[in-house]
Amino acid sequence: MAASEYTDVLASLYALEAAKGMDFKLERVALALKNLGDPHTKLAAVHIAGTNGKGSVAAMVHSICTAAGYRVGLYTSPHLVSFTERIRIGEKPIGEREVVELAREIRTAATVRGIDLTFFEFVTVMAFLHFARHEVDLVVVEVGLGGRLDATNVVEPEVAVITTIGLDHQEYLGDTVASVAREKAGIIKARCPVVVGRVPDEARNVLASVATEQQAPVVWWGCDFLAESAPLRFRGMGSEIGDIVVSLRGAYQHENAATAIAIALVLRKTRPISDDAIRQGLGTVHWPGRLDVVQTNPLVVLDGAHNVDGIATLVRELPAIVGHRRIHLLFGVMRDKRWQPMVDALGPHVSRATLTTVLPPRGETPDALAQAFRQYCPASVTPQALPALESILHIARDDEAVVVTGSLFLIGAVYPFFLARRGQQHLFSSGGAALQP
Description:
Elements: H1 3-20, H2 27-35, E1 45-49, H3 54-67, E2 72-75, E3 87-89, E4 92-93, H4 96-109, H5 119-133, E5 138-142, E6 159-162, H6 170-173, H7 177-184, E7 194-196, H8 201-213, E8 218-220, E9 225-228, E10 232-236, E11 239-244, H9 252-267, H10 275-284, E12 292-296, E13 299-302, H11 308-322, E14 327-331, H12 339-346, E15 352-355, H13 366-373, E16 379-381, H14 385-395, E17 401-405, H15 408-421
Parallel strand pairs: 1-5, 1-6, 2-5, 6-7, 7-8, 13-17, 14-15, 14-17, 15-16
Antiparallel strand pairs: 2-3, 3-4, 9-10, 10-11, 12-13
């Protein structure tokens, strides 16, 4: 296969995103899958929605079940460095040749027949087809956006999961916690077990109502299970598991770990998953770009927080990571985000802000961001992410810190810089080793 074939396929997929944007309907993806033999119906799935934490929980469940000896698929979005990160079996991403071959097959089954798939729908079909062809034991599927009308919601899962509920993507999900909860509750299916992380009462009431309608049993954070920190210990659902070490930084990851353990315990009713597999999976899970320290002098932290709740969590966690270091901030954000509260949360804690562009034209203009930051600290504009990072690293002292945040797309833009310095091209490989500073 010529490398240009893979490049051409990616270009055509990204053209779908540019041309069609986001159009939420399940009919198209369901029809495309039907034309391909309904591969999603052959998959045992864990389906995970949530405003924040769904990617981390998905990675944890994937790692736990892999440690238990199962062949586990993982479908997440967006990718950071390589498109192939979105679709993995174990730590092995889908191959470029497979992307080309599956894209050709999906076009024959869908596009040629007049089924006009969006980018995310096309990739979702690709993931389900890939997992079914490789006969995985289990797939862990992260919702793209919302839940009810998300392309992934064609699966009939063994466990449905809602990690957190907050305000994000209001133009699609509504302006209240209750409306967001209703959209995410759309993944709850009849009599399918549900695991719910820490959510506000307004969301809990909505989720409980939908679960009752669907006769779906629910286990709740804080009621049916919880985690005690220092050291991490899980209690609930008839189990107590101690001596847990989570490889991901941040106290909030302990809550995500507790949710992942609760999912594993639900799965354990039908397949063996030992306490040791849970410990091993959480101790080795690799999920880049979340409180990710990729350099020590100066300390560089990459964090994909991209909404108000995510930035608030980052601000809470930073003191434990950066200590008393002065912080140089590199920030870029999508225009459709409520970014002013993000600026207000970050601004008082940084010594200097450099603002850059994320995924033009969808990103907010750095000039507007710089004006907002100047009430808190000196702020400058460097339109391109990599030159912005390099300029900060040039002036930052070894005893200072650099924090990059605001968008996963921004993290993806700068991550190759650090990978190249370690002689790496990809975030994931058959070895699955994390990038070490």
